[in-house]
Every structure is written in structure tokens, then in C-alpha cells.
Amino acid sequence: MLRFLIVALAIATVSVVTAQVPPEKQFKVVNNNEFGDYITEYDASYRFITSPNASFFTRPFQLLFYNTTPSAYVLALRVGLRSEESLMRWIWDANRNNPVGENATLSLGRNGNLVLAESNGQAKWQTNTANKGVTGFEILPNGNIVLHDKNGKFVWQSFDHPTDTLLTGQSLKVNGANKLVSRKSDMDGSDGPYSMVLDNKGLTMYVNKTGQPLVYGGWPNHDFRGTVTFAVRREFDNLTEPSAYELLLEPAPQPTTTTNPGNNRRLLQSRPIGSGDGTLNLNKINYNGTISYLRLGSDGSLKAFSWFDPATYLTWEESFSFFSTYFVRQCGLPSFCGDYGYCDRGMCVACPTPKGLLGWSDQCSPPKATQFCSGGKGKAVNYYKIVGVEHFTGPYVNDGQGPTSVNDCKAKCDRDCKCLGYFYKEKDKKCLLAPLLGTLIKDANTSSVAYIKY
């Protein structure tokens, strides 16, 4: 009997270890097809991927190679249809920081590892799923790319590896992939300076152009219970007639109790205030926006876009914008007025200079820290004054530190060669040092004063 149990266990163990991708599900495709004809986001060129053993298209999602510069290709998921006169969007990149060249290959072999390699066989990206029981590849209707085992369980999924975008139903997790990172630009898809990070304190947007992450948006004091999910839900769940849809940021579920049974109606608001269970309601749209995505843009913006299936023209709508007339003021976006500018009610109205406020253009530039940081031999520090102005980090750091005197605030900035200026709240006696200036926000409270180095 004991011998029988040992043999049975050995057979079971071998069957698990040797579960493999069957020959009819294996594939190897080469990046050398003709380029597609239709216009896509970032004005990117793209190539289709085809294999008799796998489908790389699940309406309206498709896996392709694309590039914005010659011979630098990214394996990416696109959403949108070629037959529509509307911009097709790139919503997931496999190898954004490690592009491949001509004749690169994407292959799924017997061992179940999905590998993107150069023409010489050098692996540039992979799922690291060799010999883990993978038996197949699939793109699900929600845009999740999965490698599954013989029971349909996901061994690997793209939803666990977000780049700058969350699709409907996709999450950030404190104990997992916990952030979105922007592109550098439309032309450069590698990691940029903006990020949105989930931690135990909240969901916070940061800009890092100086080596110091600065808060500029998000929900830094909101408890998501370790997980935040971008969701699109019907306004009323128990009706069959047409209904509005809500764009939501949902926390991890909490156990229901008899005293708080909940219901199928969620509180609506267009401000960043959650309902009783911690859900944040971003906006409401009057059509089925199930296919939507939330993106951290290369300019630091946070926007949602929704796809209206019945339309044949302009099928994509901007359905939410964090920095907007209805949510958080547009001037709060650090890049709104470029590298440097004075913003009033959503308009870039001036370029601050030692000679006063001059006409704004995208050529306005702040002082550079390098001119003050030269081993103690930097340029002599002078300041010019701007009355009634606020720094973009002010609302998130309670206007700085204090109470302190304006002279002590100046002394701190003097000693810090990376400090480009300081913001002083004369009424509250608070001091905020600024290693990055960006967009300055006009403040009706003239007791808020900026002192900028030059």
C-alpha cells in the first residue's frame, strides 16, 4: 500500500512539472511584416502579428509591434478598430524601456515562457513562466493578456504589469504592482518623470525631475485598503433599461455586516469625495463606457477615456480629467504652462522674470540649479518677488513648514543650492522650498508670496 501511494505521488508530481504548451498552441512570429495604414496614437507606425496557432485580436484589443523612431519596436496592446475613423490607442507596453529591432521574434514554446527576442536570439523581455504549467495564450475581452494552465488558471497576466494605463477592472496593489509611470513624451515611450503610486497612505501623484519626488495630485490621504481598481459600473444595477455609467476608483472590498448591508446604488459626485465604502466617483457618462481606460499622461495629466461602440466617428471621449474645470483646477498641473509660467483661471498669462511679469510663451524658463550649485562657488543668490502666487505642491504639503519667519525661510533656500525659490505664507508664517517651479498658480490671497532666485 505504501509503495502504491509513493508511486501515485511521483506520477502526480511529474504530471504537474511536465504540463506543457501543446504543439498546436505554440507560436513564433517575426517583426518583418508590412506597416499598417491607419493613424494611431503618437503617430506611431505598426505591424500586425499573425500565427495559425494563436489569435492576437479580441475585439477591440489587438497585440502588435509599434515604433515612433526607426528600428526601435515595442510589443504593445492597442485598443480601437481599423474600420473606425478614430484614433487607435496604445494601452499597454511589454518592453517600453527595452525596444527591439527588425526581425525580432515573439515566441511561446513548449516550456510556456513568452519571449520577445532580437533576431540574434537575445531575449529583451519575457514572462518568466518557463515550466510553470502554462498551456495556452489568450487576450481576454477586457484587454487582459494571459498565459493560463490546463485548468484555465492564470499563470501570468498583463493586468499585473501596468505601464501608464489602467483598463477597466485593472488594479494597483500595495503588495504588487503599485504604480503607473508616464511616458517621457509621445516620441519616447520609456519611463518618464511622473508617477502615480499606491501605498498605505493613499494614491499619490508625483513628479520627479530633480531627484526629489514632489506631490502634485491624487488622493494622498485616502484609505484604499491595499488595492485600488479602476471600474466602470452601471448607475443602477437592477434595471434593464438604459442607464448612466459611473467611472470609479474602488478600494479593496470590506466585509459587509448586518448594520451596513449596502445596496446597489452608489453615491454620485463629481468631486474627489468617496461614498461610504471608500469608493471615489470620478464622473458619470450617459452610455455604456465599459471599455474605458485611465492614463497618467506624459505631461503629468490623469485622464480617463471611454469608447462608445455604436459610433463610427470620434468613438473615444475624454470622460474624466483630474486637472479640469470640474475637478481640480487646471493651473495645478505642474506642466500646464510648460517649464515655467504664471497661470490664472486655466490660462497661462505671464512669464515671471526679475523685470516683472512678461508675456508668456512656451520659451519661458526657470533658473537652473546648476548655476547655484558649483561646489560653493556658484552664482551669487538674488531673488525677485511675485505677490499672490502659489506653488503646485502647496495644497498637498499644507503650504509648507512653520510657523517660521521669512528671513529663516530665505536662509534655508540660500543654503540649499537646489532650491530655486521659496514660497511664504505671510498670514500663517509657513515656508515652502521649491526645487522645481513649473506652473505658478495665481492666488487671490496676496499674503502668499514667491521669491525666485536669479
UniProtKB/TrEMBL annotation:
Residues 373-454 form the Apple domain. It comes from the Eukaryota. One of its GO terms (biological process) is response to iron ion starvation. GO terms for cellular component: plant-type cell wall; plasma membrane. Pfam families: B_lectin. Keywords: Disulfide bond, Glycoprotein, Signal. Transmembrane segments: none annotated. InterPro entries: Bulb-type_lectin_dom, Bulb-type_lectin_dom_sf, Pan_app, SLSG/EP1. Residues 1-19 form the signal peptide. Residues 41-160 form the Bulb-type lectin domain. SMART domains: B_lectin (SM00108). The keyword Signal applies. This is Bulb-type lectin domain-containing protein. The lineage of its organism: Eukaryota, Viridiplantae, Streptophyta, Embryophyta, Tracheophyta.
